[in-house]
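Schema walk-through. Below, the input block comes first and the output block second. Nothing else is stored per chain. Lengths vary across the set, and this one has 363 residues.
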Amino acid sequence: MKAWVLGDPGNLSLVDKPVPKPGNAEVLVRIDATAICATDLEVISHGPPAIVEGEPPFNKNFTPGHEYMGTIVELGPTVDEFVIGERVAVEIHAGCGRCERCRQGMYTSCLNYGRNYGEFNKGHRANGFTTDGGFAQYAVNHINTLVRVPAHLRDEVATLIVTAGTAMYGLDVLGGLVAGESLVVTGAGPIGLSAVAVGKALGAAPVILTDVVDSRLEVGTRVGADVVINASRENVVEAVQKLTSDFGANLVFECSGAPNAVNDAIHMLKRGGRVCLGAFSNKPSLVDIGHVVTNNIYMYGIRGEGQGAVRRAASLIAQKKLDPSPLHTHTFAFNQLPTALRYFREKLDGAIKVVIRPQEFKD
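--- output ---
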């Protein structure tokens, strides 16, 4: 099969690799579509959070990419939960299943992260981070990571089931969002826009979205935002306070990674409110801890799509209560991955979610 492998930082090469064989409780997936995520850019350029055999992922014959879907083409021993030919979206993480966090359903926080080799092999897998991922034509996945794709969903849009699952995890299980509560989403990237759509589907009201790009705010309106605020033209804290009768919002989902975003978030909240931190920040942030303490504010980070969140997101999509399709903007052939990465990184032509098709090539 053809696959992209990571050499030195920032250097991807298209090579031939053997088609992997599924083991016990695994299936072989023909990858039909893979979306690009901001974390892929981090992995390709800097390494973390990817780790291969205990070391940075460079020059390890490692294939990145973690947001993908495809068709089951082979079943491993004992697999009877799925059949050949089924379309599936793939969760990133298959935890070790033996540590405290995995047994709590928090497999994206597996305590044996990266321990999947040699004498340290405890069964953990995170495709595109600790094992080969979706910038390839085939991949092996544990059945626990598979979610059936709703029949009406195009392949490219099906890659967004996992993105929606991340938003779901931050809002329902970790955030405890209840219908009728107010939600602010800061940052209209793929996760932020997914949080808007999921929040709306779960009954949040109002759903407020902030960003600095008008075209992305327009997409936010299409997926469910009741109010959009351009942070380059308005003071977002004052705007949110005004929209909530000066009480503040119940929950803020921070997806921008801006240096001031966390401090702004806590000042958008009502007393006892919650902040979900869903973005990587390149620099440490200054936060008014006194405000957090005196107003009984809860802050929590999120990584990935734990506790079955992808299945819940897929259910909402199947019921047509959640439509992620406006987030998909561009599709490229497999050998055009460098161009696709550039479109995503530089936000060319309004790019939001950029997808490659591993079974398609162009001259």
